[in-house]
């Protein structure tokens, strides 16, 4: 007579998993895979909404001048950049929250917190006299969405065995990243329709791009459209996700990663991959607006984040097959060429430039950032599991695996925090470069130097023959 029901009941206490051994192939095949997939497929829409809210200002900032808000170019770049600054800072703290509070509770709470900026932005954009300081505060609050990424990736890393972590993390982040392109694609559509009814507010009169005249828009819809989905997914997370008892750890237990050299190295590399993705996503619409004034930015801006998001799961899968370090090395190499392609297409010196070349070069860059996002996150579990096994060579393999999993989860979250600062520095570097030189060339040259340094770091520590930790 089967004892499976008894075994299953001992492994669960409500939504708490008291036994979780994904490396046990029998456990994984019989029970683990199904539970892990449920948590993954609830985590993905939660992360999707987080990214949508986080990057809402990349769209809202472009439209503010048309609505009568009198802000300078640099002020608009500040509004696009600030969510990344606060989101990256919040990620530092969010990185350590899942082992303290549990993945289910934390996912439900942080998803619900997205109601604050969405409702706030929806109210503020209806009044052109809203103080700039209020807009800055709302931009900072949108960083709540950015913080969610670190806790989400940390949480999902606990559910899957080593050989599936790259693919699972790639799916979670890649499909979650689609929130960036979705907000940039949907916002121009929903603001033209009063689809949310009278409770959402009256329409505003906006200047038409490239033409003389005005049209009715509901600018608040760009924020309010996400409110019902946030409520639904928060409830799904509370009811359907799980906490893992073995994943519990205090902050002091996790803080050991600050002593690990490879934590800081991976933070540097992830700044180059994810930092580029989120930074380009935030700055791309405004870059189009000022370089090619005859082009409507929001017709094209969403394509870049879409390409990057779709490439990320492929980057995780490719890394599982070929090795994360090899994929990361070649990704940075091609990113150097991608930036040079962008520079070759820019207007200047009497030339109007080539928008087609500019768009294709940036789409290539976005594709590479997606591949690199997947490959760097595939490297982290491999690196820290290897380090744990080396430290515990004479001890228990199970203890080493548990230690490696906890450190990997903390590093995934913390490197995600450091990488997110790219979302602030990249649009701000564009804004500063425009202010000082009138072009984005200085910022782009800095990116070339950074990517070249990333190639050297990846090769030395991880991808060369005899590297310290080949992975």
Note down, in words, how this protein is organized.
Helix content is 72%, strand content 3%. With 471 residues, it is mainly α. The protein has a 3-stranded mixed sheet with strand order 1-2-5. A two-stranded antiparallel sheet has the order 3-4. Helix 2 packs parallel to helix 10 (162-190), helix 9 runs antiparallel to helix 10 and helix 15 packs antiparallel against helix 16. The longest helix has 37 residues, at 355-391. The radius of gyration is 22 Å and the shape is globular. 55% of the residues are buried. The model is unreliable at 1-6 (pLDDT under 50).
- Average pLDDT number: 88
User: Unreliable stretches, pLDDT < 50, 5 or more residues?
Assistant: 1-6
- The DSSP helix count reads 20
| Largest sheet, strands/sense/barrel | 3 strands, mixed
Strand order of the largest sheet: 1-2-5
Radius of gyration: 22 Å
Strand proportion: under 5%
Name the helix and strand elements from N-terminus to C-terminus, one letter apiece: HEEHHHHHHHHHEEHHEHHHHHHHH
Number of strands: 5
* Helical content (DSSP H or I, runs of 4+): over 70%
Structural class: mainly alpha
Query: What's the N-to-C terminus distance?
Result: 45 Å
Shape call: globular
